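queue> holo job accepted (3-phosphoglyceric acid)
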Amino acid sequence: MHEILTKAKIIPVIQLPNAHCIIPLAEALLEAGIDTLEITLRTQCALQAIETLAKSNLPCHIAAGTLTSTQHCNDVKNAGVDFAVSPGTNVAMLQQAQSISLPLIPGIATATEALTAIEQNCHILKFFPANLYGGTKMLANFNSFFPSTHFIPTGGITTANASEYYQQANVLAIGGSWLTPIKLIEEEKWPEITKIATEALSLLSH
Ligand code: 3PG
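queue> job finished
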């Protein structure tokens, strides 16, 4: 997973209004060079969209996002994801994910939560919501406490601060919903999404 995330650089956090738009959306992101997609479970169609993408021949890495229960772990594994992401750290979920070979990235906002996740053998953590919990300064602190742990900051990342987050030594990739605005998805404005994603990638360099 480390390699997939390093190559990905940016993970769009996608809230889908319907399942059928996942294929043109994935194609629009692939055209920009983004091949790792996080489909959040915040909308009803998410599992169906994950299944559709998993069965397609598109060269994407598929993540499910916003997992909040052990049942979600089972559901997304069955739908065919490569990995999953949770906004929080829950030991029962981490243990369930391990037992079904589902790589799960837990969300943390504090050192205490990070310790709980590290104790469960998780070394890639979602720092969420990054903007509300100290942003890049907090990431620098985490680097001194947890030098072997990598982070995916999400929450409040935009073109204005993407590069600053990405440059942190312990950041593998950044995540956010700004690349795939729900309005553009609803209106099927795929070239605009390709443009936003291309611009976003061009901002990033280590
Ligand atoms: C997430 O689920 O990771 C967040 O909602 C992403 O945060 P953002 O919407 O502020 O990018």
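queue> The pocket of 3-phosphoglyceric acid is lined by residues 13, 40, 65-66, 128, 154-157, 175-178 (CB under 6 Å).
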